[in-house]
Amino acid sequence: MKKTNLKSLSRQELDQLIADIDEKSFRAGQIWSWIYQKNVTSFNRMSNISQSLRTKLDRMAFISSLKLIHKTVSLRSNTEKFLWELEDGFRIESVYIPEGKRRTLCISSQVGCGLQCRFCATGSMGFRRNLETEEITDQVLSTYREMGEKPTNIVVMGMGEPFLNFDNVLKALVIINHSDGLAIGHRKITISTAGIIPQLIRYMKESHPFRLAVSLNATTDAQRTRLMPINKKYPLHQLLQTARTYTQKTKKRITFEYVLFKGINDTQADANRLLKLLKGMPCKVNLIAYNPTANPFKTPDEDTIHHFAETIRPLCAPVTMRLSKGDDIQAACGQLAIANRRKKP
Ligand code: SF4
Question: What is the DSSP string of 165-210?
């Protein structure tokens, strides 16, 4: 009999499994709490569960965890990058970013990515496979175990396009958010997309509560297609129209991520166009200075970044600026796992 990985189950599915083996319903709550609050991976440690049930569970189920291959600590910030190995030998990364009381964990949703954004190291790996639900939640649990502290915020902005692994990502986020487990509030969880319009519409229709970010990075179709080829399929104006509808229907704000590339999308004309495109939309703009990797793009100078931010300030939307943290450990957006990828053995 194939054993069930309990971390692949939603809370309702665990309730059902416990009912199916004729155990009392409260046992599901106990097991859930051992997995997601006490972070255990062995039935033997579940001390309030009878020996006979532990033996039964051992025969039919298991609790997965990720294998830590390497941890890199940034010398310039406290950012830490974790390289995990999956059951089939593929490797993924998560990035832990502490800032005051906030401990943000950036998690991956796929092995590699098929969208091939020109500035992204993950994109140049190509797509290998979607992560399973448990491989997504395990990035949170395994980092929690390593750091001894639970992350306070989760961003799905690591390797992969989360909306192309919609079901597994959303199931994992519901588990991470569950009040009897990790209990990370839905306002502290952000899912970031490169702009997969049909999934954005699905996300809106299904009324998911998590925060939404869109990686915008350009103000014309020509420019965006050059940076993000997915723009050919889902063009800028269509994407922004869908984003506008999302904010109207859900009454929620969207965050637009805008990575500034020297001489490409950081000019006065770009800032003016961005101002016009986002006018009247409840949103937040996150300006990020690009971190140079092996590709030809360059970082704008600080004056240009400040000037860009000043120009779009009339949006009345909060504008945040950051130089990517962890650039010395290739932990910035789009730099994950390229140096450590391993093909399926
Ligand atoms: S930036 Fe994101 S969506 Fe684009 S290729 Fe990289 S991982 Fe994929």
Answer: GHHHHHHHHHHHH-TTTT---GGGEEEEES--HHHHHHHHHTT--S
